[in-house]
Amino acid sequence: KENSPVVELKEAEIGKEPDGQLVGQAVDSESVQGDGRFTEESDIVWEEGANEDIETQLQERAGVSAANVVYEPEPEKSELSEGTSASTSKPTITVSIQPQKYMLEKIVGDKWEIKCLLSNGANPESYDPSLTHLLNLENSKAYFRIGNVAFESAIINKVQNNNPGLKLFDNSEGISLIRGTHSHGDVEHASDIDPHTWTSVKNAKTIASNMYKAVVDLDPENKAYYSRNFKNFLSSLDSLDREISQQLQPYRGSAFVVWHPSLSYFARDYGLEQISLSPEGKEASVKMMQSTIDKAIVRDVKTLFFQKDIDSRQAQVANEQIKAEIVNINPLNYEWDKEMRSIANAISRQ
């Protein structure tokens, strides 16, 4: 092992212990205990019958020959730099949610390994990162937070204690934030920030711009490569925004129902009203639920968006009165562009 004395054994005597093990005894006095056995660092033990050829056993167990047994230093640590994925030899960036991963991969191409804390279908409201997720984050060169999601703040301090060099970037910086969409009981809190910034094609342009600036900061040598990818991605976002704007133009001013208010920014982009059955994402009181149902009926709502793995069955019960089309959505889907189109398609069927 490292810093251990190099001991060359020109001979090795083999003896049997009472338990049936064959024990190699070193001739060199520096490497043996009082009873003639190898020390912990140099002990070589063979199971009886495993291989009668001592030279072969030494090669298999110690990586050396019987004629010249030499301690070898411990393998060096990986030459990969901190923040590099051992599986791909690429530097690693960790993001919070799948839509971020989708967007960032459009910009970085094959230059980075992108890891995500939340898997598809996970609920960010109740997310508790596993040890593996925290280790991935600690071993990354940077963490791209989406901003204002509760679990992000909870884990950053833990991770930075173990990796103070970890760079942090807020991908939602510069976005005009919506407040007051969440409530506590029947009282709204205007200071509450709606964290679902990514459910907007217009916001996605800002998120992508923040990502581009961050990766150039991390890897300025490949700026031209990132710039080309970023411009192509922006062009596709512009096309998607125009497509949805034209599609939903006839429906401006109309309303839709959701369980949790995850589409506030989408609604703002295209002049729609979002009616949430449970702003807090929890079971709503009977009074609150009935008030929301009455509002949806008055607004002649035709679409109720439902996250089947997260939302409460109360939404389906409420729809017995609203009688809207129930549409399953996943705002945290990796295929973010397809999700935006699916939401637009559902509204345009009204």
What do these coordinates show?
The chain has helices at residues 54-62, 98-108, 131-138, 150-162, 201-218, 223-248, 264-269, 286-298, 314-322, 336-348, and strands at residues 12-16, 22-26, 45-46, 92-95, 113-116, 142-145, 167-170, 183-184, 187-188, 255-258, 273-276, 303-306, 325-328. The protein is an alpha/beta fold and 350 residues long. Residues 1-55, 61-81 and 184-191 have low confidence and may be disordered. The chain has ten helices and 13 strands. The strands form four sheets. Strands 5-4-6-7 form a four-stranded parallel sheet, with helices on both faces. A four-stranded parallel sheet has the order 11-10-12-13, with helices on both faces. Helices cover 36% and strands 14% of the residues. Helix 6 runs parallel beside helix 10. It is globular.
Mean pLDDT: 78
Order of helices and strands: EEEHEHEHEHEEEHHEHEHEHEH
Number of helices, counting only DSSP H or I runs of 4 residues or more: 10
What structural category arises from helix and sheet content?
alpha/beta
Morphology: globular
Approximately how much helix is present in the residues?
25-40%
Instruction: Kindly estimate the percentage of residues that lie in beta strands according to DSSP.
Output: 5-15%
Low-confidence stretches: 1-55, 61-81, 184-191
- The side-by-side strand order for the widest beta sheet comes to 5-4-6-7
- Number of E strands: 13
Ends distance = 72 Å
Largest sheet: 4 strands, parallel
What is the gyration radius calculated from CA atoms?
Answer: 30 Å
